[in-house]
Amino acid sequence: MKKKYMIILIIALIIVFLDQVSKYLIITNLDLYEEFTIIDNFFIFTHVKNTGISYGGFSDAPRLFFLAIYILSGGVFYYLIKDLDFDNNQLYSYSVAMMVGGAIGNLIDRVLYAEVTDFLSLIIFNKAIFGVFNIADIFLVVGMIIFAIDVFFEDVLKWKKSKSQK
To answer: Is 118 one of the annotated active-site residues of the chain?
Structure first.
């Protein structure tokens, strides 16, 4: 197996492990909708089920909708994985690995239970600021942010290089 595939596999497996173990601990220790305060007025665990996508959107969509989303995502990830280069393009490569791991973590829930377990909630001024999310979501979002930063700076560097050659 090529080095890049081995690295992404290991990273994705670690993320999936962390995600699934954390969800298992929440499911076995908190009743549905039960809350456990970690830091008063800032950070709580709250056991919820999400049948939709981000923040419960499309919660009444048919399963075929989610199948289409995952097939489309799989195609995008396949395309992105082709360009992985952990030696020369680390931000890009690690961001894609994080997104793949997060997507697989939530896909497991979606396939097994037709819903995703969410449990992390940040509170500011007595309001949840990001809704309720999970470990997989963190890796998906952080991976997307790193990916966007990498693509942006790569484009800026190309633009500066092309401008300096004129």
So the answer is: yes
